Request: fold
Amino acid sequence: MKHPAMGLNQGYRRPRLSWSARPSRREEARAPVTVILLATGDQLEVDASIEEVVKVLENAARSSAGTLARVTRSGTGEAVALNATHVVLVREDGE
Reply:
């Protein structure tokens, strides 16, 4: 227990992470990538987890007709809007 006269930051030591607990630079830089397969046969890789992509697609499908799901294309950062009814498959990129 801290003495009442001590400030909030006094006596506090930030825990150090061991080298094995720290994410590598490769892991830090790698954003989750999800692949969307469309009815046309086109594949779209997006910068988001599968949970985020599914949520965006479900929200667009439940909204009024013509509502598009907005995602960000992997690698280019290009914003893309797609019709959720044209999505056939959503999967995590297995690279």
